[in-house]
Amino acid sequence: MKILITGSSGLIGTALTHSLREDSHEVRGLLRVHRDGQPFWDIEQGIIDLAGFVPEVVINLAGENLTDSRWSRAKKARIVNSRIKATQLLVSHLVKTDVRPKLLISGSAIGFYGNRGDEVVDENSAPGTGFAAELCRQWEAMTEPARQAGIRVVNSRTGIVLSPNGGALKKMLLPFRLGIGGVLGSGRQYVSWVSIDDMVDMIKFIIKHDAISGPVNMVSPEPVTNYQLTKALGRTLHRPTIFPMPAFVTSLVFGEMADELLLASTRVKPAKMIAAGYPFHDTTLAHALDHLLH
User: Fold this and answer.
1) pLDDT tens-digit profile of 217-248?
2) How does DSSP classify residue 154?
3) 3/177 Cα distance (integer angstroms)
4) Is there a contact between 195 and 167 (Cβ–Cβ < 8 Å)?
């Protein structure tokens, strides 16, 4: 199968590309640097050139890193443009092609639900409020023309992806290994997570199962609180977790990002994946951390 991936050099994209190629699929990344014979795009200039590659599946993972710096006005603009503008350009190109892909899996996030406390949310739940929720709502809306053009569209509402190679877990490893990790805020906020292995396999599962469409929560069926996550990581690394960061300090250090991502509580159920019969590999956080880190 011919598969095109945007964001192919990111955490998910790298692992997914490797796994799909191991399964003998022909995978190309949509690159931002022009190379002869390779699919290329320039989001600011509104240019896409697939260099003759005709994908059957397009997986859109492009997006500015959310957690590498404080959310200044310029940073938030880059976050929005790298998702909204990029997805709009991609979809516009796909619906105009003579041979359209059968499937578009386009990124989204559980930020769609906003800060919901202890409430359990699934794909039928209403969107939340705040910057992240509005971003995800608009991001998903950009794929509607593809759906109207007859392309099967899946909006992958992704949780915290756990991998020692990047993302939140990699950033947590150094302070936790030094014994200075601790809970953030009250520690009661829910964290909906997914291992990188399950994330990759869920995408492959979606490709194979034509009945899956629309928003899909890409998370483990067992969300945990920040307190539970902190203690589980400490046990896995055999380190104490006695240095909490109060909510006001977290907000001072990380700004708006703290309230939207670090202190927000989102307790998400992957209802569609459960109903479709996806066999989760990492159903508990302890199991996931053990196999990812050991």
Assistant:
1) 999 999 999 999 999 999 999 999 999 999 98
2) E
3) 39
4) no
pLDDT number for residue 206:
98
DSSP of 242-277: ---B-HHHHHHHHTHHIIIIIS---EE--HHHHHHT
Range of the structural domain that residue 135 is part of: 2-293
> What does DSSP assign to residue 110?
G
Q: Indicate which CATH number applies to the domain containing 145.
A: 3.40.50.720
pLDDT at 33 over 90: no
Task: Determine the residue type at 273.
Answer: M
* DSSP classification of residue 189: S
Domain total for the chain? 1
Cα–Cα distance measured from residue 116 to residue 223, given in angstroms and rounded to the nearest whole number: 13
Ranges 205-209, 255-259, 290-294, most confident: 205-209
Evaluated on CA atoms 161, 16, 22, 281, the torsion sign reads positive
